[in-house]
Design goal:
Shape: elongated
Strand content: 25-35%
Number of helices: 7
Number of strands: 15
Strand order of the largest sheet: 1-4-5-6-7-8-9-10-11-12-13-14-15
Number of domains: 2
Mean pLDDT: 82
Distance between the termini: 129 Å
Largest sheet: 13 strands, mixed
Keywords: Membrane, Transmembrane, Transmembrane helix
Structural class: alpha/beta
């Protein structure tokens, strides 16, 4: 006869007789809580885990005109045993935000962010970008010191002056303009003539911190850049005339590498003389540029009395069109082709250019 199954007493559910299995189920919860406690204790000590980037982002998003903020945090480097961490924020602003409002926001960040607690970054680098009168306008690398020992070499008033200068050049015909306290860069894209308002000077030549300008465009297949870092001796009309004439030369059969790089005046005012590099002129790297393409360019450049050096460079399939150049330097008021660095190709192009003058 089958005997009925006996059940264990109910007291094991809540009394001292609970099973070993039940006791073991409680341990993971205790361990998990301990891990959380340790993690929370460690996080404030980890200066480079976030660096306060989330706090910086939150503050920026509350400011007028700010639409989006992307934040990255650099790895730590060590200077004299201290952590040196930096937060980089790219701030997208509402279209047509006034440049003065951007300057005010940058200066407000300088005053308020250092007061925020739990920001471990040594400094913050802020870049503001927005559409202004049809141009993508960017104020790059505004440095906001966070730590008490942090400092910046940037000049806020000069930064704002540069930004307002950049704003004057915006318009539907200009793709992008970026600026900082020391550099103004204009990218116009494709144009049908040399721009009337071509930038041919240092943006703020009288400032203690040197400034430079870069104005780039593409005309008749020629990628052209004009840069200046001083009060230059080459006038704007003369510069535009020179570039117009060069971009009208026949060039080589392969026009895919054509470029002009025109440096007006010496770097940071070291010299009043200018230099021009013209690349992609056919030929081959070890031979030199094609004579028929290079000679007209040389003839035009030699007419400009303030140009002291002319570089004519061949096309290159792999390298830069500014490599393996033939160089003509002015000596005693004229270009020298008798130096030890002259080659047969140097003299050949020079003689062809003289016939075109």
């Amino acid at each position: 006869m089958n005997r009925p199954r006996q059940h264990a007493p109910l007291r094991h559910l809540d009394g001292p007789g609970r099973s070993l299995h039940t006791r073991r189920e409680k341990r993971p919860a205790v361990s998990f809580i301990a891990v959380i406690a340790v993690t929370l204790a460690v996080l404030p000590l980890s200066a480079c885990s976030d660096g306060g980037g989330s706090i910086i982002r939150s503050w920026l998003l509350k400011q007028d005109g700010v639409e989006k903020v992307d934040v990255t945090h650099s790895n730590c480097t060590f200077l004299d045993g201290d952590d040196d961490c930096n937060t980089v924020a790219t701030i997208s602003l509402s279209p047509n935000t006034n440049p003065d409002a951007v300057c005010s926001l940058a200066q407000k960040a300088d005053k308020e962010l250092p007061k925020k607690k739990r920001i471990d970054s040594y400094s913050a680098t802020l870049t503001f970008t927005w559409q202004y009168h049809g141009t993508e306008l960017t104020l790059e690398d505004h440095e906001t010191p966070i730590a008490n020992t942090a400092s910046t070499e940037k000049n806020p008033s000069q930064e704002c002056e540069m930004l307002n200068t950049a704003a004057e050049y915006t318009g539907e015909e200009v793709d992008k303009i970026s600026t900082s306290s020391g550099r103004l860069e204009i990218n116009r894209g494709d144009v049908d003539k040399v721009p009337d308002n071509l930038f041919t000077r240092a943006p703020s030549p009288d400032k203690e911190v040197g400034t430079e300008s870069w104005d780039s465009f593409k005309l008749n297949d020629w990628d052209t850049t004009v840069t200046a870092s001083s009060t230059t001796a080459v006038s704007e009309p003369a510069t535009k005339k020179l570039l117009t004439e060069i971009t009208q030369t026949p060039g080589p059969s392969d026009r895919s590498k054509l470029l002009i790089f025109f440096q007006l005046g010496g770097y940071q005012g070291e010299s009043s003389e200018s230099e021009i590099t013209v690349g992609g002129l056919g030929g081959a790297p070890l031979v030199g540029p094609d004579t028929d393409a290079a000679a007209p360019v040389l003839a035009i450049a030699m007419k400009q009395p303030k140009i002291s050096k002319i570089r004519l460079c061949p096309s290159s399939k792999k390298g830069s069109s500014m490599d393996n150049c033939i160089v003509y330097s002015k000596k005693n008021g004229s270009f020298d082709t008798d130096s030890e660095h002259s080659t047969g190709k140097t003299r050949e192009i020079y003689e062809a250019a003289k016939k075109l003058s």
